[in-house]
Specification:
With about 700 residues, the protein is an alpha/beta fold. It is built from 19 helices and 25 strands. Helix 5 runs parallel beside helix 8 (about 140-150) and helix 10 (about 240-245) packs across helix 12. The longest helix is centred in the middle third of the chain and has 91 residues, at about 415-505.
Length: about 700
């Protein structure tokens, strides 16, 4: 990928900084498609909570349960009852014209209470009693006759037995199962064998139905298949067979689609199922069914209208003989009531729905919730993200609960809640990591900008230095002209005086010689000034040696006493004796003193007192002061006093004091001005002593006198 495309993607990547939550979301999707047992258990328990909180309001009135309960056993004896009693019970029920009677009981063996079996088990019976018993009809025949008179359905058990009826060659009544759209066997619960009733009984009944139940992995009954594949045949469960017999339709259609079984149809009534042909049962409380004790039915204590036109389920609920199983509503039920709940669900059309599209809706909710968390964190930071997280923790289960109550549909809240609970800390963690990354990036950016700024400053300084050096040529020329003006003027004056003496013939040789010596001295001084100025401009340094400052002051005064100078000025010189030597360049300090003396003299145009003084300075320096009695300095003049090209003279260049300060600071000293008591101005400068090099003393420590 080209670098510019990569840079553009990095800049506009909408998922930048969200890779951790996206990775967590991907792992969750892989887990959901794999659907491990822990996810399935959480999902099923969520559905159990819905049913426990909102069970079916009431069971159908179309189903009646006849109980062989504890009361019946107490009244009529222990179980199993003889088949002639079962025949009597069935005859009483059939006399009240039910739609169909279904048995949640398996009659796989011959009745041991039947007379023929009793005589075989008791060979010591008197012959007269044996003959009388043999003449009695077998109990199984009596029960078969009752089954034939009533619309009855017997139960069979898939997964047990030898796979065929006890008596070969006997036909078995069974509802025909038709597959529409494909083969249903690939999706149905399968059993290789089938435990059957006595062939005599099955031949007498209207149909058979599977009565054993399929548990979920946690041992709870939630979904019941409508058809089971057993012994190589498709056999309806007891509830579906009862509906088929009650509708006088002996055909059950299974509709098969591309994803599996879509539903079952009996007599034009379509029942949706999941892809495995199972129905989610909407359970009702056990006491919501019409239940009658078998002993009461046999004694005729049940009104005819309680059973007439109803589907009757007959089975056992007595302790010790009934199979109790766990249900979603929290109470264990006998299998008889499980079949009753399935019938009620089918008749009331309250089967809980969980169509295949629900799976994808749940995934969409997970994606939407995760994206909301990521976008909220990116735009509104932590507080809003926490608020959204808490809102989702309430909204998802509440929405699932409302879907269950309003539409009898099962929407899994457990997986979206798990996803939100895992994506939220991933979003927060990614945000903290990204914030730390941005902070480090901002720090690096600031450091980079600081380095760039320093580089620009260094570049600017170099440019300024080059510009300064270029400008220094002009300044140097001006300063050179200014500073050489004094020695040249002195040379001119000395030579003019010598010429005047020579013309008048009044000059003796010794006077002329003195004048010429002084002119030569000024010429040498001019050369030294030129050299010193070049050192300051080019290097900012001076060549300093130990010098007697009092001697320098006296030499400067001698140079300044040129004819035409200081004529109206009264000099007052106070030189402190015993001063230490100072580190100074003699020519340059001469130049500074000359400038200050000349400026003081020019400030007093009508004459006045000019004072010079030297004194020790407490900071390891020697202080020199030059004071005048001129008009003093204005506030504006004092503020700009040492700036280059600033002057109050009509013909001045404004460089003298600027150069003087540069010379003194190059020596490690300080030059300043202050008002003089009684009027005028005092200029003062300090120079380091020979025992106190200039570099060893900070200029800020030198306070003006």
């Amino acid at each position: 990928m080209p670098s510019w495309i990569k840079a553009a993607w990095t800049r506009f990547d909408p998922w930048r900084g969200q890779r951790l939550p996206l990775f967590v979301l991907l792992i969750l999707f892989v887990l959901r498609f794999g659907d491990p047992a822990v996810l399935e258990t959480a999902r099923l328990q969520s559905f159990d909570f819905f049913q426990k909180s909102g069970p079916a309001a009431a069971a159908t009135t179309e189903v009646v349960v006849v109980d062989i309960d504890d009361q019946s056993l107490a009244a009529l004896g222990q179980w199993p009852w003889p088949r002639n009693r079962m025949a009597s019970l069935l005859d009483v029920i059939a006399a009240q014209n039910p739609k169909v009677v279904g048995f949640d009981i398996l009659f796989a063996e011959s009745d041991q209470h039947s007379p023929e079996n009793f005589t075989a088990d008791h060979p010591d019976l008197p012959e007269s009693l044996r003959s009388a018993l043999v003449r009695l009809p077998p109990h199984d025949r009596l029960f078969a006759q009752s089954l034939a008179r009533a619309p009855s359905v017997l139960g069979v058990v898939a997964g047990f037995g030898n796979g065929g009826p006890v008596e070969d060659g006997k036909s078995t009544a069974q509802t025909t199962v038709i597959e529409i759209g494909g083969k249903a066997g690939a999706y149905l619960q399968k059993s290789q064998t089938l435990l059957r009733n006595l062939a005599t009984l099955e031949d007498a009944s209207r149909g058979i139905g599977v009565i054993n139940l399929a548990f979920d992995p946690d041992g709870v009954i939630r979904r019941i298949p409508l058809v089971v594949q057993a012994d190589g045949r498709l056999i309806p469960t007891l509830a579906m067979e009862l509906l088929a017999v009650a509708a006088t339709s002996r055909t059950l259609s299974l509709h098969v689609g591309a994803a599996g079984i879509e539903g079952a149809e009996v007599d034009g009534h379509f029942v949706p199922t999941d892809r495995l042909g199972r129905v989610w049962v909407r359970f009702a409380q056990p006491n919501s069914f019409r239940r009658f004790s078998a002993s009461n039915v046999l004694s005729g204590n049940i009104a005819a209208d309680q059973i007439e036109g109803k589907i009757v389920l007959l089975g056992t609920t007595a302790a010790g003989i009934a199979d109790y199983v766990a249900t979603p509503i929290g109470s264990a039920m006998p299998s008889l009531l499980i079949h009753a709940n399935l019938l009620s669900t089918l008749l009331n059309e309250t089967a809980l729905a969980r169509p295949p599209i629900t799976f994808f809706i749940e995934l969409f909710v997970v994606i939407l919730a995760s994206l909301l968390l990521m976008v909220t964190q990116r735009r509104y930071k932590v507080r809003a993200t926490v608020a959204l997280f808490l809102l989702l923790l309430w909204t998802i289960p509440l929405a699932s609960w409302l879907v269950f109550l309003l539409f009898d549909s099962l929407f899994d809240p457990s997986f979206p809640l798990l996803a939100v609970a895992l994506v939220f800390p991933a979003v927060i963690t990614a945000s903290l990591v990204n914030e730390e990354r941005r902070r480090r990036e901002a720090t690096r950016q600031a450091e980079r900008q600081e380095r760039e700024k320093e580089a620009r400053i260094r570049t600017l300084q170099a440019e300024l230095l080059r510009t300064s050096r270029a400008n220094s040529i002009g300044h140097f020329s001006s300063a050179l002209s200014h500073e050489l003006n004094q020695p040249l003027a002195a040379v001119y004056n000395f030579l003019q005086a010598a010429r005047n003496l020579a013309r008048k013939g009044q000059g003796a040789a010794d006077k002329l010689d003195g004048m010429l010596e002084k002119a030569l001295a000024q010429t040498q001084r001019g050369s030294s000034i030129l050299k010193g100025m070049r050192e300051i401009v080019e290097h900012g340094e001076v060549s300093a040696t130990g010098t007697d400052i009092n001697l320098l002051v006296e030499e400067t005064l001698d140079l300044c006493r040129v004819p035409g100078h200081l004529e109206n000025t009264a000099l007052g010189v106070t030189l402190s004796p015993g001063l230490p030597l100072v580190l100074a360049n003699r020519v340059q300090i001469h130049q500074v003193l000359t400038n200050l003396i000349q400026n003081a003299s020019e400030a007093m145009q009508r004459g006045g007192e000019l004072s010079l003084a030297t004194a020790p300075d407490g900071a390891g320096h020697v202080r020199v002061t030059v004071s005048d009695r001129g008009p003093g300095l204005s506030v504006e003049a004092e503020a700009n006093l040492f700036k280059p090209f600033n002057t109050t003279k009509a013909t001045g260049m404004g460089l003298g004091l600027s150069i003087c300060r540069a010379i003194i600071e190059a020596h490690g000293g300080r030059l300043w001005a202050q008002p003089r008591n009684g009027g005028g101005t005092t200029f003062a400068f300090t120079l380091p002593t020979a025992g106190n090099p200039a570099g060893a003393v900070k200029p800020d420590s030198m306070a003006p006198a």
